[in-house]
Amino acid sequence: MAFFRNIIVVLPHGLRSDAVGDCRVWPLSTPNMEKLAARGSRLVASTACPADPGGMVSLLTGLHARQHGYVEPLTGPVAVEGWPSLLAESGYHVAGAGLVGAIEPSLREAVIVEPVDVLDSARCRYVAAMKQKGQWDAVRQQRRQRLRFGPFEPDRLMLEPDDDVDGFIAAEAARLLANMPEDKPWALVVCFTGPGNDLPPPPLYESVADRDALRAGYILADFTKLDHVAELDYPRVMLQRLEPDRLARIRADYLGRVALIDHGIGRLASTLETRGDAGRTWTVMSSDRGMLLGEHGLIGYRSFLAPAVEVPVIIAPPAPGRAEGAEEVPDGLVSTVDVAATIAALAACDVPSYLAGRSLLPTLQGDPVYPALHGGLVAEFGRRLMLETERYRLIFDVVEQRATGLYDLLNDPQEATNIVDSATGRNLLDSMRWRLGDALMPLRARPGTDAGVQPAPVPRVG
Fold first, then answer.
1. Nearest to 196, CA basis, from 396, 319, 13
2. Domain boundaries, the chain
3. CA end-to-end distance (rounded Å), the chain
4. pTM for the complete prediction?
5. Which among 37, 111, 222, 361 could disulfide-bond with 172, CB atoms 3.0 to 4.6 Å apart, if both were Cys?
6. Alpha-carbon distance 287 to 285, whole Å?
7. Residue 250 and residue 233: Cα distance in Å, rounded?
8. Does domain 6-378 have CATH number 3.30.450.20?
């Protein structure tokens, strides 16, 4: 190849969009993420599937949950093809660190780390490293505590940042980056386990956010208003025991992990600066889903409430590439399935026709952001299906074949009032059903593949 682009793809698990410091929502600075955003385009995307592992499958494949079928939690490993295999077939040297087991066949080099709910694994490099250091028994006990209590009563360990799972991933990713070839195109995929892994950060990062300020916005959950938009990730009794101090600690732990990952991104940037090919290396960052941190009294992610479905998408060229006058955060409907098409465009790969997404590179030149699907954005998990338009968010129960939620995002950005049964809502439903049909019609499964999970039925749109 006479000219090629190298690509670093950073995919933190469970990073909500407003956790990036440029939003000025939380008392936290993320200087390295913000540097990436300042170089290029920073967007807010809706995840195609706010459930594990479906959200990551959508990021890696460019397929909606309705196409790949991973709408429920699975107990076994996931294996997918997607843009990593496209890059490998195009001559890229593809390497990965972290939660990259699903794309291992596409990787020339891999440092595989298993999800934090795995208590032991022969192929997990982090497990092997902690055993060698004599720390695995403590880490395993911490993970057992997490499986019992989630983020509510964490077991805190006196770990150095590089001995934390995400610090380990950052260090291994920097090592892979330093040794990438310089005579051919390469791509490095870095999948962190957090900040949505429900683990406390190492002690150095426990106090990066002002905990007193994190008590604000505390409310108790009203489950009568939430059952149609959320599946509880934790027992109701845990949520009912939430109080301001505990909520502040949960938020502080989450933001501490955001800061740890931001430091890891800075570490990658510093390593890249030592390479002769830094001038042709792009960085793309996104996440599979967000996380509720007390909004509506909930902790978790299996929801269509904004903090659970809104994630960042950052596209950073090697040097400042945003056109003069282009918006810092362009408005428009963006989905995580657009990430695959964007990476394929960066690598000059042909985008398969079954992908629902489109390249977001034109946003660097200030072009408007139009939805890839004519009806709007679609997201799905379990029996719930969401359509988001420029103004409204509609939620369907695909088993009962009825609309259960409708929110006016312009007049009610906090999603406090469900208008589905109001006169306004009833007047909107017919047009919203037709828009949902327009959005679902183009979605096709990848030819010759079967995710092994039966997708939920399509709701009636007539």
1. 13
2. 6-378
3. 51
4. 0.94
5. 111
6. 7
7. 15
8. no
What is the SS3 assignment for 51? Answer: coil
What does DSSP assign to residue 224? G
195 preceded by cis ω (within 30°)? yes
- The pLDDT tens digits along the chain (462 residues) read 447 899 999 999 999 999 999 999 999 999 999 999 999 999 999 999 999 999 999 999 999 998 988 988 776 788 898 999 999 999 999 999 999 999 999 999 999 999 999 999 999 999 999 999 999 999 999 999 999 999 999 999 999 999 999 999 999 999 999 999 999 999 999 999 999 999 999 999 999 999 999 999 899 998 888 888 888 999 999 999 899 999 999 999 999 999 999 999 999 999 999 999 999 999 999 999 999 999 999 999 999 999 999 999 999 999 886 666 666 676 789 999 999 999 999 999 987 777 888 899 998 888 877 766 678 999 999 999 999 999 999 999 999 999 999 999 999 999 999 999 999 999 999 999 999 988 888 887 665 544 433 334 433 332
Residue type, 308: A
